[in-house]
Amino acid sequence: MRTVIEGAAVFAVDRGSTEHDTGYVIINHGVIEAVGAGSAPDKGPVDRRIDGRGCLVTPGLVNTHHHLYQWATRGLAQQSDLFNWLTTLYPVWAGLDEEVTEAAATAGLVRLAETGATTVADHHYVFPQGAGDPFTAVVSAAHRVGVRLHAVRGSMDRGRSHGGLPPDSIVEDTDDALHGTEVAIERYHDPAPEAMVRVAVGPCSPFSVSPELMKGAAELARRKGVRLHTHLAETLDEERQCQAEYGCTPAEYADRTGWLGDDVWLAHGIHLSDDAVSRLGRTGTGVAHCPTSNARLGAGIARVRDLIEAGAPVGLGVDGAASNEDGGLGVELRAATYLARLRGGPDALTARAALWLGTMGGARCLGRQDEIGSLEPGKQADLALWRLDGIEHAGIADPVAALVFGALPPVRLLLVGGKTVVEDGTIRTVSDVDTATALRRASFRLARRAEANR
Ligand code: ZN
């Protein structure tokens, strides 16, 4: 059960930022056994030996924020800001069911794996009445594709009749939302270090959820020992609404309702004051930075460097594919670097810091820094072997710059827990042709339902 990768450049993203121009990784029973420079030492029988010359090996990327179901609703509301985008899309999402969700989630996970992601947090918060069990559909898609899933059981209890944006048909009663979340934890959460599925508690956002649900969700998560996730401080509209309704900023509201702490990670965190940034840093509250989605919706540029300096864990997220049609994680390394530089100048974020955000930063947001996120003995063998010998990268001075600044390299090999998920740029666990066909049908079915209900 031993795999050896040799001859590749290595960027370990460990505490010492270890790099080797030529090195090896040895994997034994799904766990990293050794990492080093030069040729691999003899540790015993080898089942698979991979010639990594011309490649860079890094930890697998960690996606800290997504809505996989949105793969079935891409290309809509192209010029909208967040609130208008939501009010356009909610009625379409009202037609979601288990089958559409599974087709969309499978496609989204394949795209993520083919762009270097080994762990994915998915935030599913749309539960239309009579739609079956979309949460289980996402778990089943991740099982088939073979990536680690942090399944965030989302919820909304503020429909239009209670001053919220979503139609009443897709929100739940507060008690039902809490009960559904508890059932999801009991059914799927696995605390083991090698866990392929963990569950987190995730009311959608302060503007679509009552204060009772925010507080109840925080209490539930802490009683069950699972993590908490929600959207926060994404737009100025949200800030204005929060001030009007609760007389405070979104960050102060999060504090009041029990939503700051080292077991919480927040999506976006764009519009934060100096006080809010230091509050997040002090409490160890994480931020899932989603640069492409933020740009697509014109939401703003997150204060990534300030958050890192304040001590807050920051990871990268794709966000739902309805606000990021690419849906790949590798390109977010570059997007994060460039947005940070537009805000803070050319040294605001280095290529290496971006790769740290995409790996260890994400692992910290998900509370898995001791299990994944770096290439170190004892950690899960989640890694990406990137091919740098093609015309896009051959001869480039620095392999990490090739990955972050250059075209996204093909993934020669993606291992999750030592198992092959992607090889030679293509998914190996499911059929890419069947996945695309199912996605096309699901998107068509959903569009037809939206048309009929208009
Ligand atoms: Zn989101």
Please, could you describe this protein's structure?
The chain has 2 domains: 2-59 and 379-426, Urease, subunit C, domain 1 (Roll); 61-365, TIM Barrel (Alpha-Beta Barrel). It is 37% helix and 21% strand. It contains 14 helices and 17 strands. The strands form 3 sheets. Strands 1, 2, 3, 4, 5, 14, 15, 16 and 17 form a 9-stranded mixed β-sheet that branches. It has a 4-stranded parallel β-sheet with strand order 6-7-8-9. Strands 10-11-12-13 form a 4-stranded parallel β-sheet. The longest helix is centred in the last third of the chain and has 22 residues, at 432-453. The model has no long low-confidence stretch (mean pLDDT 97).
Tag the structure with descriptive keywords.
454 residues, alpha/beta, Urease, subunit C, domain 1, TIM Barrel, four-stranded parallel β-sheet, 21% strand, binds zinc ion
